[in-house]
């Protein structure tokens, strides 16, 4: 039924103008302002991801967007150089190291938040 649809994802922010600055200037993603105040994120090979204004926005408590990269350490450092703060986790099965990278099995991954508290990640392909 849906196997041939061009699905897309979206999540809320409380200020799409500020979101545009973060996603375009810090993450270097092509953005486009759409109808009704929607901000589109255009990532190579995918349908746009939409960010929409929600006055009573509450950040997601889970990862809403993952960015596969070839070198997690390099991506983390580049984002830190731009002022991005990475999450530190210290749970039994989820511990990040001094570089804020999880190396406990599976792909190396590091999590950070957008200015609205939504959780994003970079993970090694």
Automatic annotation (TrEMBL):
InterPro entries: Glyas_Bleomycin-R_OHBP_Dase, Glyas_Fos-R_dOase_dom, VOC_core
VOC domain span: 5-125
Superkingdom, natural source: Bacteria
Protein name: VOC family protein
Species this chain originates from: Flavobacterium suzhouense
